[in-house]
Queue: 2 jobs
Job 1
Amino acid sequence: MSDNYGDIRSEAKALVEKFVELEVEHQAMLAFNRALAESGDLDDIHSWTNEKKALELQVYSDQWRGEIASWFADITEMFDDLADLPDPAPLRSEAEGLYGALALLAGPSGHTDIADGTVHGPAEAFEKLSAIPTMLVDWEGHAAEAFKLNFIPPLERVAFHEFEAVVSLRSPLIAAAYMWEKAREDVSNLIDEANSALDDYSGGKDSADAVLALGIIGAIVAVAAVPFTGGTSAALYWTMAGSAIAVTGAVVGHPNEPEKQLDISGDSPADIAQSLRDAIWKLKLQLLEHELFISRQIRTLSDQINGYTAPKGTPPIPRDPPYYSTEHSYSESTVHEFALPRPLLADATPGNVNDDGYLGTPK
Amino acid sequence: MTAAPEYLETLTAEAETPDGTAFARLRGTSDISVSFVPGYYAQTTEARLADKLTQLGRLLWVARMREYYRLKSDLLNREVRGEGRPRNERQAARREARDSIVASGRSDDGRVELSAVGLLSWSATVAPGTVRQVSEEAFTAACAQAAERLVEDHLWQLKLVWASASTGRSLG
C-alpha cells in the first residue's frame, strides 16, 4: 500500500472529485437510459457520435453537478478528522527513554523485557546483595533485624516487580505508537481502496471479493505477542495481553474483538461512497477501543503499584481520593509488592535514634 | 468524461497469435497497434488476416485483464485476481448484460470491420483485395482505427448497462 499519509487532505480531495465525476456520469447514463426507454429508439443513443456523447454529458453535468457534489461533501470532512493523527515517533522515543530504568531494575540476575524481547543483564548495583548479610553480621538491634529480615530478602522481588511495572508502562507506549503508525497506514489504504473500487466501477467490473484488512487490528496484538510469535498470532493475543501487562496477575481487560476486515465496494459511486463512510466509521471506533484499552492498562498498572488490588475475599478499602473509577480496592497485603515498607530509621531524630524502636541501646 | 488514473493510462498489454505471426499491443484503454512478422502480410490472404485479428482481439483483452489485476494487486498490496462471485442476482444480471454487449468498429477506408461480444468473443472482416491494394502500414493503421472505435463503442454501451442495473440514488 502506498505510504502517503502526509497528503491525506489532497488525496481525499482528489478522491471526492473522482466520486463526483463518476457519479455525474452515472446519473447521466441513468437519465439517458430513461430517455431511451421512453422514446423506445434503441439505435439512436448507441449511434451518437463522440461529439454528441461529450455534449450530452456536458449538458447534464452543467445542470446537476452542484447537487451531486453535495452528496459527497461529508467525505472531505471525514478525512479531515483523520488527517492529523498523532505522530508515533515521540511515543517510541518515550518508550526508549525507559531502557535506562529497566537496566537498573534488572536486579542481580537480569530480566527480559517481554514487550520487545530485549534482554537486560544483571544490574551492577545489586552485585553485593547476596554478601550483605555477611557484611552486616555485627549490626544488631531492631533496625538491623528489620533490615536483614524485611528489606534485603524481598529486595530482588520488589526490583523485579518494579522492572515489570516499567515494562508494563513501556508496553502501552509501544502499543500507542504502533497503533498510530498503523492507523495512518489504514487511512492511506482506505483512500487507495476507494480509488480502486471507483476504477473497477469505471472499467465495468465489480470489485473483487478480497477486502481491506485493517492494520490497527494487529497493532496492539503485535506488541503484546512479539517475543512469542513474532507478532503473527492475533488469537494468542487475546489470552496474552493480560499477562504481558498485568504485573501480579490481576485480571485486566482485553480490547473488544474487532471488525477485522472492511469492504469498499458498491454498484455505483454513491454506493461505494457509502461503504467508505462505514469503513471510516469502523476505523474510528476501533481507534477509540484501542485507546480505551491502553488507558485501562495504565490505570490497572497504576492501581497495582499503589496497592489497589485486593486479593479475593479481602474487604475493599475505598480509595481516597477517587481520581478515577476501577474495580480495584486498596489492600495492605499487596501494597508492598512495589515499594518496600518505609525504613524505621527514616523517622528517627537525634533524640530518639537510640530508643528501642530504632537502633536500640547496646546491652 | 473522467480522466483515468495514471496507472490505467500507461497500462500496457501485449498479445501474439499461437503461430507467432501476428502481434497486438494495447496502451491505456483503446490505443491499439497491430503488427506481423516480416514478409507475412504480403503472402497471406484476407481470410487469414481476419482470423489473426479475431484471435488477437480475444488474447489482447485477456492480457489486459491480467495486467489490470496485476497492477491493482501492486497498488493495494494484496492479491486481486478478478471480480469474484456476484454478490447478488442484480450483480449477476448486470455482468451478464455487460458480457453480452455487442460492440463494433470500422476503419475509415472500410477495409477492416471488427465486432466483439463483451470483448470476449471477437470477429473480423477484411475487405477482399486488401492485401494486394494497400500497404501493410495502411492496413495495420486501419486495424488500429477499427479496434479503437470498437473499444469506445463497448465502453459507451458499458456505461449505459452499468448504470441501468445499479440501485443507487438517482435524480433528473
Note: The CA atoms of residues 37 and 160 of chain B lie 39 Å apart.
Job 2
Amino acid sequence: MMNSLILQTATRLLLGLMILFSVFILWRGHNQPGGGFIGGLIVAVAFALHALAYGVRAMRKLLVLDPRTILAAGLALSILAGFVAALGPGGLFANPYLEGRWFVTYTPAGEKSFAIGTPVLFDIGVYLVVIGGILAMVQGLMEED
Amino acid sequence: MLTAVVAIFLLAALAPSLHRLLPNGSHWVLALGPAAITVWFASQIPAVSGGAVLTQAMHWVPALGVELAFRLDGLSLLFALLVTGIGSLIVVYSGSYLHGHEHQGRFYLFILAFMGSMLGLVLADDMIGLFVFWELTSVTSFLLIGFNHEDARSRRSAVQALLVTATGGLALLAGLVLLGLEGGSFRLSAVQASEVDLRGSALYLPILGLLLLGAFTKSAQVPFHFWLPNAMDAPTPVSAYLHSATMVKAGVYLVARLQPTLGGTEVWIWTLAGFGAVTAVWGGLMALRSTDLKKVLAYTTLMALGVLTLLAGLGSEDAIRAYCVFLLGHSLYKGALFMGAGGVDHGTGTRDVRDLGGLWPKMRLTGLVILLAALSMAGLPPFFGFVGKELIYEGVLEADPAGLWILAGVVLANATMLGAAGLVFVKPFLGRPTPATAHAHENGPALLLGPAVLALLGLGFGLMGSWPAGLLQATAAAVAGRPLALELHLWHGLTPALGLSALTIALGALLYVGLGPVTAALAGLARLSRVDFDAGWDRLLAGLDALARAITRRQQTGALTWYMLATIAVLTLLPGVTLLARGGLQWPDQPVGDDYVGWALCGLMLLGTAGALWARTRLGAITALSIVGMSIALFFLAFSAPDVGITQLMVETLTVIIIVLVLARLPKFGPLERTGAGLRLLKAGLALLAGAVTTAILLSVHAQPLSPHLSEFYAAASYVEAFGHNVVNVIIVDFRGFDTLGEIAVVAMAGLGVLALLKARGAPAAEDQKRETAP
C-alpha cells in the first residue's frame, strides 16, 4: 500500500473504466483486436493497481469472490463449453470435443446480425482464469502475515 | 475366464460393505464366490486332461496391439485351482482368525484383489497382461504384509518385499518386451509355437537373464530370498496363501511356462539348477534354526521353491513330472501347516517353538491336522509328499548333467524337511507342557476347515494316485511342451530313489535328534548369512538415499542464479549445437528494412539493455528491462499485430507490478549477487551466446520461404466456419481451442502454485530443522 493521493484518486477513476474496457475487449475480440486473454489481463492490472493504492484487503473486498473461486469457475466454464459440441448433429459422440456451436440471428436481408457461440463461452472462461490466476498471485504476494 | 477374474475383483470391491452388513458371517458368504469359480475350473479338468486348451481374447489397447488374452492349459488350470480353491478356504479361515479386527473388511478387499490378480497372472497369455497381473500381485502383497501398518516392522517388511519383487518386475517387463520382439508375437503361446530359434538368438542371454531376475525375486531364490521370512509379519492367512501356496510360486510358474520356449540350454539348466539347489539347502538349514513356527515354515517354503526351480531347470521328463507333483503336494501341506500354525498361535497366544509343548490333549483336532500335513512335508509314505519326493529323486537321477552335488543337496534339503516337520509337530504337541500352553483351547470350525481339507487331500492324493493324475498329466504336458505320460504310485519297486528316500529319512531323523548341536553349528553359519543379507539391504537403501541426497544437493542448490544459468545454458546449447551440426545456419536474402520506426525501437531496446546492465539496484534493473519489453510491444503494434501488442503491454505491466511486490519482500542485495569477476564473465558470455543463438535461429528461419498454406487457410476459414473476423482470436478459442484449454489450465496451476508456496512460508521451520540434522 502506497498511500499516495494521486494514485488513489486515479485508481478510483481507472478501475471502473478498465473493467468496462476489458468487457468491451472481450466481446469484440472475435472480430477485432482483443479477446479473453487480453481482457483478463486488463482486469488483473486494474485490481493490482487498486491493491497498490488501497491495500490488498480493500481489493479483496472489492473483488467479492476469492481469486481461486474465479479461477476455478473460469476453468470449469471453458471445459464445459467444450461439451456443448456434443449436442451437434449426428449424436453425442459424433462431434469432436470443443467444436464450436453457434446461435445466429439474421437480418431480414439475410445478413448475420447477432451471433453467439460456445467459443465466446470458452473465451469468457479464459478471461476468468487469467483474472483469478494473476490476482491469486498478487494477493499471495501482498498479504501481510 | 475373464468373467472369473472380473468377478473376483468385483467381489473384492464389495467385500468391505458386505462385511459391514454381516460382521459375523461375511467370510462364509465371501468364500462362495471363489468356491463357485473353483468348481467351474474343476469342471474343466476332464477336457483339459484330454488335451483341450481354452482360449479367450479381447482387445485391450488396440492401438498398441495389446490384448487381454487368456489361455487355460494344464499348467494354468493347476494354478487356477490352487488359487481359487485354497483362496476359498483362506477366506473362511481369516473370517475367524481376524474376527473383531477393526479392518477386517479391508482385509477381505486386499486378499480378494490379490486372488483376482493371481488368477489373471496364471491365465494370461498376453505378455503385457501377464506383467500387469504380476505387478498387481506385488502391490496386493505389499498391502497385505503391511496390513498391521501401525507396526514399524510390518511396514519395513512390506516395503522390502515390494521393492525386491517390483525391481524384479521391471526386469521381467524388459525381458518380456525383448522376448516379444524377438519371438515375433506378444502371445506366449504364439512364441512357443513359432519357428523362431530363440535359443540361438543373440538376445537369448539378455532375455533369459531379465526374465529369470523377475522370477527369482518373486520366488525368493537366494540371494533375493531375504524378503520372504520378513514377510511373515503379515497375518497368518496371508502367509499361508500368498507366501507359500500362490504368489511366491509365480516365479516358478513363469519358469515352467517358459521351459518349452527357452529351456534346455546349458545356461538354462545350470543357472536354474544352481540357484534352485542353493536356495533349497539354504532354506532347509535355516528352517531347522528358527524357533518361530511361521519362520520355520517360511524357510521350508524357500526350500520348496528352490527344488521347484531346480526341477524346472533340469527339464527332463521325470523332472517335469516331479515339478508338477511336488508343486501340488507342497501347496497342500504348506497351506495346511501355515493355517495350523496360525491355529496354534490363536489357541495359545504364541508361535515360539520353545514356549510350546504338551498341546496334544488340548488341541487334538489341530494337532491331527498338523500331524497329517507334517508327515506329508517329511515325505513319508503314504502321503502325497512321499510321491513327490520319490519323483524328485528320479528326476534328479535321470538328469545326467546335474551331477552328484545337486543330488547331495536335494537329499540334504529333503532331510531338513523331516527335521522341520518334527519341529512343528513333535515339540509343540508331544513335548513337556509349558506355562504358555496351560490355557490352550481348541479352535472353531472356521479355523479347522481349511487346514483339514488340505491335509486330507494330501493323504487322499497319496493313497489314490489316480485322482490327481489326469490333471497333473496335462500340467506336465504344458510344461514339457509335448504330451507326457504320468502315473502316480506309492510303490515304485526297489529303485535307487527308494534307497535315497530311506537315506533321507535316516538323515532327517538324525538332524532332528541332534537338533541342539545342529542349531549351534547353523548359528555360526547364519552369522555369515541372512543377517548379512537383511542388513545389507538396509545399507543398500541408505546408500541410495545418500546418493540421491548428494545429487539433489548438487542440482537443487536453492540459488536462483544457478537455476537460471542451467536453464539458459540448456536452451542455448541444444538448439545452437543442432543448428550448427545440421547446417541450418542461413542468411536471409531479403534487404534490411529502412523503416525508421523499427530502427528507433531497436535503439530504445539497446538503451534499456544498457540500463539494466549498469543498474545499481534491483528496481533500477527491472525498470530498465521493462523498457525493452515495452519496445517489443510497440514493435508488434507498429507491424500490425495489435492483439499480440496489447497482450505484451499488459504482461509487461503486470510483470513490473509483481516483481516490485516480490522485491519488497526480498532482503537487501545478498552475497549471491555480489559475485566474483569469473562468474560475471561466465554469465556475460552465456548471455551473449543466448542472444547470438536466438538471433541466428530467427535469421535462419527467415531465410526459409514461409509456407502460406496455414495462414491462407485460417484467413479463409475464420469467418466462414467460426464466425469471427479476428483470425488470431479465432485460432486461440476455436481452431486450436484445445491448446488454449491446456494453457489456461497451466495458468490456473501456476496461480495456485504460487499461492501455495507463499502460504507455506510460515510453516517450514520444521523443514529447515530436518535439513540441518540430515547429514
Note: The mean pLDDT of chain A is 85.
